[in-house]
Amino acid sequence: MALNASTCQQLRGYASKKDAKKGGKGGKGGKKGGDDDDEDDRKGKGKSSGGSAPSGEMSFDLLDLEKKMGQCLERLKKDFMTMRAGTANPAILDPVSVKVENKMVPLRDLAQVSIKDAKTLMVNVNDVELTGAIEKAIREAGLNLNPIADNKAVRVPVPKPTKEFRESLTKLAAASTEKAKTIIRKLRQDGMKELKKDLKAGMSEDENYSLEKKAQTLHDKYIKDAEEALKVKAKEIMAN
Known about the structure:
The chain is of the alpha+beta class. The chain has helices spanning 5-45, 62-81, 131-139, 163-200, 205-239, and strands at 97-100, 103-106, 111-117, 120-125, 148-150, 153-157.
């Protein structure tokens, strides 16, 4: 059948519309592809691009260092109190332990120690049956004391120390001081090690240097305080 011009024109128009429709689908598909790309971009934004992890908690604690050094000095002073120099002081009996039912019990848990006068201590016993055991424990404690039992109390005269005893006591005080100084030095060394770790963990060099100086200042202070305490104790020992 022959096609006239009008029919051909209609067919061409139909084909154009069909192609346009297909193109529209393709365009729609292209848009969808673009949306997928946009979505991928949005997801990519949330991913880490690398970089260093945040540093953890710092190891060094200046306040803790000062606290430990202070405790060390206080222990030294407490030790000094047990080093009698001819004057009655309840602290001189702190090292005494009493054997009770095959157990060693601190004297302070069994009695109250008080000062009767400048040269005498009184030990008031909680249980009268332990008076003898307490007297024996004080006598054998190596404190050069000769206690006297009296019912529920034990009287402890504090003799005037000899020159040799004073010198021995001074050496003991010096040894205790050196031990305390060694502990203080060790605390500073441990602090410096912690600061090195903190520097590697992200602490700034300025802050690290500042804390090192503060740790050294604390060290110097407590070493000096320990030495001053020894001077005072040695003078006390030799004077009484």
